[in-house]
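Q: What structure does this chain adopt?
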Amino acid sequence: MEATADLQQRVHELGEWFHNLDLGGIRTAPNHFLGDYPRVKWERLRPALPADLAGASVLDIGCNAGFYCFAMKRLGAGRVLGIDVDERYLRQAAFAADYYGLPVEFRRLSAYDVGQIEETFDYVLFMGLFYHLRYPLLALDLVMPRVGRKLIFQTMIRGAAAGAPPRDDYDFWDPHPFQTPGFPCMYFIEKRFAGDPTNWWIPNAAAVEGMLASAGLAIEARPEAETWICAPRRERSQPPIWALELEGRL
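A:
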């Protein structure tokens, strides 16, 4: 009982949790407004992944308290690196990794800093972060060189859940395509969404798929409404020149 009380106290001291982890029966976010999050997402994603990730390397961008890092590690992944900019989440993740006895590395880096990681990963997770970025397409371009085999991408979406294939070109004088519900678009949040001032851009599904394609990714699966599994296309192995310039690599 005393050990349980000590664990509960430590969980409380680490601050408010967004990931609902199970630490010996103690739930870190039992009253999450999305339910048992992110387990509910993982249960839909899991069947689309290999049963055994033996030795695969994993990068989790915006890892929060590390739920997906731990899930991938339990599937047999080798090197697993989680990055986030929030020191509170990183402390939570390190604490949970120690509790589980799982060798996962965590570093304080943003999606724009991934160029500092000079390696590629078999699986890159980019989940629950896109809509928090002021420059989302830049981040996606910078992440691309880190993707060795698969990018697992998840974002909140609003608007039409599907769209028509894009045309090769649009007439300057024709406004009608932009009035079609399924036309790719991003909704800009000037102030707050769900009480959060870091929710900047919310795409519809067609915009997600268009941006993934423009970044050099081929969509292979959509295991749930908000999640896509992609693989790099051979012709796009590097981010565009403008992205490299902003990153300071030229």
